[in-house]
Amino acid sequence: MGLLYLVLLLVSMLGVGLVDARWRLFLWAEPKRALLVLAAGVVALLLWDLAGISTGIFAREANPLSTGILLAPHLPIEEPVFLLFLVQVTMVLYTGARRILGSREERPR
Hints:
By secondary structure, the chain is mainly alpha-helical. 67% of the residues lie in helices and 5% in strands. Strands 1-2 form a two-stranded antiparallel ribbon.
């Protein structure tokens, strides 16, 4: 069983978390609201994945980079971690972009 993919996801989450902490963009700006958004996003995307799995659209093939641990048929343990990372990076990019674009609007012309 490989751990490379899971470890890379966790390292990437840490990197995005450090950017978030440095500029207080998402989780560090409003922790309660951010946790709610993270949970809602992961649940929605997991439901999407489960729908795709149940209809046969999504399937998992074994590979040497992942653990091989399945939470459900065709749903590897790495999937919820990836979805959490996806929501996290999306929200940090969104809040960062808003801050940058908002700061441009506040400058006198």
